Every structure is written in structure tokens, then in C-alpha cells.
Amino acid sequence: MRIITGIAKGTKLKTPKGLDVRPTADRVKESMFSILENLTLPGGGRVLTGAKVLDLFAGTGNLGLEALSRGAAHALFIDHSLVSLAVIKDNINSARLGERAEVQRGDSIKMLDKLGHSGRTFSLIFVDPPYNQRMVNVILLKFDTSIVAEDEGLIVVEHSKHESINTQWQNLQMIRTEQYGETLVTFFLQPIRGTTTLAIGGN
């Protein structure tokens, strides 16, 4: 597992040993970021450059670090496991991205409430919970009813193809879904609040 491109291209990333951690495969990550880099938001902005990233269930920090390498401004990594957090910190140091990275320990779902109450917002959010644990819709509901996702923010959810996911929300708009074997990656947009302009450019 490695950082694919950007300023930290080629950096090898560690994986926690002895834990049920399922890092995003390089081929899935490469496809995911190709989609992100080719999206043009309704307001004309791009996704990655200058993004404020939230990496939930961060595991190894794989996704947030890839975003930082490709031009994101800052990333917050959240995981409940001390072992995972130690690996994330090692990977941040290996990639030399520590000035733009922050690591917090906590339950990823509960941490959303804390972030919402503190007023923190993010423009690019990665959600990669344990498969088939009925967490995805709970998390999406929190984003749908909070302001953690900024206007024109993107939420990228990695989940099992066997897990039912709600695609109809009051605020969030599903814009794309891709399948890679047993894995689905679903992209949601937080439209500018109070508008209905939802067109998305890209391939």
C-alpha cells in the first residue's frame, strides 16, 4: 500500500497488525481519486485543491494522506484504536505531511456530534466503516442533519455491496456510485444550502 501520486508519491504506508483493518486497495483508491480530480462542483470549484478533509474510521490514514499529497490543505484523522492511531502517525511522518495533519482518538460516529457542536466543517469526507455493521445510514443521517459537511462538500462512502444504503436524503444528493468486486464507493454532495443547483461536471 502506497501513496499513488502528488508530493508524497511512492511513500509506503504501514498497516496495523493483528487488527481487523481493511485498507482501501490501491486500484480502488486510484479510481476514487481519479473521479475526485475530474469533478467540477456546481459553483465551479475543484474538489481536492485546498480541501479540508475528514477521514473517519481512518485505519491507516490511507485516504486522507492521498488527499494531502494531491493538494488538500488539512486532514483530520479519526479512529478509536490506539494501534491504528500509532500507525496513522507513523504514516503521516513517513509522508512528511505532519504540518497539515491532525489525529484524534474517538468513536467516529460520536465524534461527528462533537465536531458539529464545535462548528468544525469539512469539504471532503471519507467514510470507511466496518462492512455490514449497519453504520453507513446512521452516519449519512448525521451529515444530512448537520453542517459538518460544507456547502458543495463531498462525502465518499466505501461499503459492502451487500449492505443496503439509503440514497434519498433531505439534503444530501447521491451523485455517483462505483463497484469494485465486493466493494461499492458512493459519492454524496452537500448542495449549497437553500439552492437546488445540483449539476456536477466530470467523467
Topology record:
Layout lengths: L25 H13 L13 E5 L5 H8 L4 E6 L2 H14 L5 E5 L2 H11 L3 E6 L8 H9 L4 E12 L12 E8 L2 E8 L13
What form results from the Cα inertia axes? globular
Question: Numbering strands along the chain, what is their spatial order in the largest sheet?
Answer: 3-2-1-4-5-7-6
Q: Which class best fits the helix and strand makeup?
A: alpha/beta
Helix fraction? 25-40%
Q: Strand count, sense and closure of the main sheet?
A: 7 strands, mixed
Q: Measure the end-to-end span.
A: 26 Å
How much of the sequence lies in strands comes to 15-25%
Query: Low-confidence spans: pLDDT under 50, at least 5 residues?
Result: none
Detailed description of the structure:
By secondary structure, the chain is an alpha/beta fold. A hairpin with a 2-residue loop joins strand 6 (173-180) and strand 7 (183-190). A 7-stranded mixed beta sheet has the order 3-2-1-4-5-7-6, sandwiched between helices. The chain has a single domain, classed as Vaccinia Virus protein VP39 (Rossmann fold), CATH 3.40.50. 27% of the residues lie in helices and 25% in strands. The chain has helices at 26-38, 62-69, 82-95, 108-118, 136-144; strands spanning 52-56, 74-79, 101-105, 122-127, 149-160, 173-180, 183-190.
What is the structure about, briefly put?
It comes from Sporomusa malonica. Helices cover 27% and strands 25% of the residues.
